[in-house]
Amino acid sequence: MKSHFKFTKGQRSGIFLLLVIIVVIQCVYFFVDFYQKDIVVNPDELVSFQNEIDSLRQAEIEARQTKIFPFNPNYITDYKGYTLGMSPDEIERLLKFREQNKWVNSAKQFQEVTKVSDSLLNAISPYFKFPEWVTNPKPKKSFNYQNNTPKTYNQKLDLNTVTAKQLQRVNGIGEKLSDRIIKFRNKFKGGFIADVQLQDVYGISPEVMERLLNQFTVKTPRQIDIINLNTATIAQLVTIQHIDYEIAYEIIDQRTLREGFKSLDDLIKVKNFPVDKIEIIKLYLTLN
């Protein structure tokens, strides 16, 4: 035990300093008043601070919620439907409906297809965004289409003087097609030679062609120089629509082999001849 109470001079100084510190702390504790005075709180400021805290808390809650942006309900995926609150069955009904290449064009139709509840529909329908042509369809232009019953030659209008508006009276001919017909006609000084030239106008189906020729025909054909097929030169042949230099050379070779053509229809036997345009080509040719 004696060894525990033997200290060096430095150790004794340290112990003495420690005791002094303890005594000072005890004195401070007993003689210094640490009691805090009552804090005066302004109720109005407290309410103001509380309201600000509540608003910040609400803003944080709203920021964490899933935001919904305008969308086309026709393209709802499984995940999108889940985030909107739709059940798997409701999502499946919509997907099957779309697989039939059908489209939802209103909130009412969306509910009819998916069977969603009124509450869910009211929550998500304000975000539905349908194409402009669905929400604001343009009124269809009404034309007084002419009767498709064939008219007599005297009753028909001349294709070389008819206007685009008159052409649009035929069912199947709109603004673009009528303008295309007029532009093609005006490429030639004098217009069309015959009705068959309408085949060169892009976009005219056989049905529309039939209805068109029931109402119109070429009455004042463009004057052209008719070329003798059996004496024509290459320079003359290439002036004909749909005949280029290559075909012109082939025609001359075939004419030489045959010692002259016996019929204009023999042209279809010429190599690379545009058979589908033969009726137009024949307008420029003769065998006499």
Structure description:
GO terms for molecular function: DNA binding. InterPro entries: Endo/Exo/Phosphatase_dom_1, Hlx-hairpin-Hlx_DNA-bd_motif, RuvA_2-like. This protein is an all-alpha fold and 288 residues long. Among the domains are: 73-135; 157-217, DNA polymerase, domain 1; 227-286, DNA polymerase, domain 1, CATH 1.10.150.320. Helix content is 45%, strand content 3%. The chain contains 13 helices and four strands. The chain has helices at residues 9-31, 43-64, 78-84, 88-99, 107-114, 118-124, 132-135, 164-167, 175-186, 206-215, 234-237, 245-258, 278-281; strands spanning 157-158, 216-217, 227-228, 285-286. A two-stranded parallel ribbon has the order 1-2. The protein has a two-stranded parallel sheet with strand order 3-4. The protein starts with 8 loop residues before the first helix and ends with a strand. The relative contact order is 0.06. The model has no long low-confidence stretch (mean pLDDT 87).
Radius of gyration: 48 Å
The average pLDDT is: 87
Question: Which word captures the global form?
Answer: elongated
Q: How do the SSEs run, as a string of H and E?
A: HHHHHHHEHHHEEHHHE
Q: Structural class of the helix and strand makeup?
A: mainly alpha
* Helix content, binned percent: 40-55%
Q: Strand portion, in percent?
A: under 5%
E-strand count: 4
Largest sheet: 2 strands, parallel
Q: Are there runs of 5+ residues with pLDDT below 50, and where? A: none
- Give the terminus-to-terminus CA distance: 153 Å
Number of helices: 13
Strand arrangement across the biggest beta sheet: 1-2
